[in-house]
Write a structure and sequence with these properties.
Number of helices: 9
Structural class: alpha/beta
Order of helices and strands: HEEEHEHEHEEEHEHEHEEHHE
Distance between the termini: 35 Å
Largest sheet: 11 strands, mixed
Shape: elongated
């Protein structure tokens, strides 16, 4: 089809689709292949995009999501699988989400936080991984609490444990794991947002963006996304977008 030809020309002009993958997301990248290549829901979604375009695939790994987003203008990737955020959408044309992950807070057991809303109060410090999608959401939406940004998830956890923060923001599955490992901490009920995992391309790729949106819509409707979530054993931690 002519539309597919136009999308192919924009997304894989060399005959190879370069797909940027955030390897720091342990729900979307759950393992490594024999050659060290990322494996999981996101790499499999990228592989299906390449298959439908009729081109080869090269995965371009990034250790952190903000590094992937910041490289959008560097010409090193054609599509990026990452959390869709308005701050990133200025440069990246995102599809609607294909999967989502709840974000909430971890806090000391003895803290006075009874709910998510209690965290956004004057004087409260929230540790967060700098540049994460939920960090960008909190930057836009917190009215009173202050963000304590750290360059790694481990650093953000250390800030909480050292008393440099009163709560730790993160993805619920990761925080539940941390709470099991660290007596004296608890995960607050509810969520302040759900990170929307989508596929993006450069804004000038209009035909490519339309192709990707159609692909995501069909991948959800056909059950492909649900199948990949089951295959990579992240059901209950990663959800099909809109399923709830």
């Amino acid at each position: 089809m002519a539309s597919d030809d136009a999308a192919r020309a924009e997304l894989a002009p060399s005959g190879v689709l370069r797909a940027a993958i955030n390897t720091g997301n342990f729900l979307l990248v759950t393992g490594r292949g024999p050659g060290g290549e990322p494996q999981g829901v996101a790499p499999d979604m990228a592989a299906e995009v390449a298959r439908r375009l009729g081109v080869a695939l090269t995965l371009v790994p990034f250790a952190r999501p903000n590094g992937l987003a910041d490289a959008s203008d560097d010409g090193v990737w054609d599509i990026g699988l990452i959390g869709a955020e308005p701050a990133r959408a200025a440069r990246i044309a995102f599809t609607s989400a294909y999967a989502e992950i709840e974000a909430t807070y971890l806090a000391p057991t003895g803290s006075s936080f009874g709910s998510i809303d209690d965290v956004d109060r004057p004087g409260v410090r929230v540790a967060v991984l700098a540049g994460a999608a939920y960090d960008l959401w909190l930057e836009r939406n917190l009215r009173h609490a202050a963000l304590v940004r750290r360059p790694s998830a481990e650093g953000a956890m250390k800030a909480l444990l050292a008393g440099e923060a009163d709560a730790l923001a993160g993805l619920r599955p990761a925080l539940l794991d941390e709470a099991e490992r660290r007596p004296g901490t608890r995960v607050l009920a509810g969520r302040f947002t759900a990170v929307q995992q989508a596929i993006g391309t450069r804004r000038e790729n209009a035909a490519g963006a339309r192709f990707l949106q159609t692909f995501v819509t069909e991948a959800i409707a056909s059950g492909l996304v649900a199948e990949l979530i089951e295959r990579h054993q992240v059901a209950g931690r990663l959800s099909v977008a809109g399923a709830g």
